[in-house]
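Handout, section B. The chain below has 355 residues.
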Amino acid sequence: SCKIFYNGEQIPNVNEYTYLGINFNSHLDLQEMAKFRINKGVNKVMTLSNTLRNKYVPLEYKKMLISNIITPTVLYGSELFGMSEIRCAGLKKVVDSGLGMILGNRNFSRNRAYEEFDLIPVQVKAAASRARAFIKWSISKGFISDLIMSSIEFKSKKQTWCKTTTMWMRRFKINFTDSQSFGKIEVQNEYIPRVKKRDKTLISKNATDFKIKSGKLIRKLELSNPNISNGLYHLTRIRSGTFQFTNRLVFNGSISPEHINKCAFCGTDTIENAEHLLIKCSAWNIERRKFLKINNEKNLLIGNNLNSVISCVLGGNNPASGWKPADRIITTGNFLSAISRKRAALLAVLKRDFM
C-alpha cells in the first residue's frame, strides 16, 4: 500500500474510520454503517429507559424522546444506507424497543403503535433521506453533482449507490426535476401504503373498523388533565393492543390457566377484550353508568350500533352525536382511572392465589 504524508507526517492506513459520526471501512460496506448506528441507538435507549418506563412522565414527552432523539440517532447517515429494509431492520428494532418501554409490552403491532404516536416508520424515513440527498446533491454546485451525473451515464454491472438510488426512485415515482419536497412526500405516499398493506395484525384491523387513528388528542388532553393521566395511559394501551387483558395475563404466567378465554373479573365465559371491558363487563357497571353513561340493562347494543359505540368510547374519528371528541376521551379516561385501582386489587388476589 502507498504511503501518504502530510506536512512530513505519515497518515496511517486503517481498515475503518469514523468520520462525522459515520463509520467507513475499506469496502464501503453500507451494512456495517447501519450496524454502527444500531449500537449508538441502543445506548440512547438504555440511557432513556427509566424515563420511557416512568408512568408519571406524560406520553407526549415520551413521544418526543422517540421522534427527536432515538430516531435521529439511528437514522444519522441514512442518506447513504437507506432504501433497504434489510439494513434498516436492526434500526427499526431499536425504535420499537423504545416504544415497547412506553407501552409496557414488547409484543405489539408496530404499525398501530406508529400511527398512535404519529411516527413515520424507520424504513420510510431512511428511504426519504436517501431520496432527498440524491436530489439535493444532483442539483448542487459542488463536485458531488458531477460525480452523480457522470455515474448515471456510466454503465456498470455492480449495484452502485447512484444506480440503486435511481432504481428505488423510479419505484417511488419520483421525478426529481419536479419534486418540491426533494422526494420526501413521494416516498411517504408510495411507501407507507405498502407497509400498511403487509400488516395483517388483528389490532390494526380493529383500529380500521373502529376508525381509530392518531392519539395526538389523547396526549394533549393528558397534559391538561393530569388527574386522569393513568386512565388515558390505559386508553392508549387498549388502542395500541398492549393492554393486559385476561388472556395475555394467562400467557404471561401471571394468573391461573383456568381463566383462559374468560373474564377474570366478572367470571363469565367471555374473552376479555376492549368491547367487553368498556361496554359489557358487569364488574364495572357502576363506573360505566357514572362516567360512560351506558346502562347495559337498558341498552342492548348489537351490530353496527355496537361498533359505533366502541369507536366513540375509544376516541375514534366519529364520536356519537352531541359529543365532542375531547369530551368523549375525557369520560373514557375518567372511567379507566376509576376502575384501574379496583382492577389492580382484584388482579393482585388472582396472582396471589395462583402463586
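Note. The longest strand covers residues 16-19. Compare this with the example in section A.
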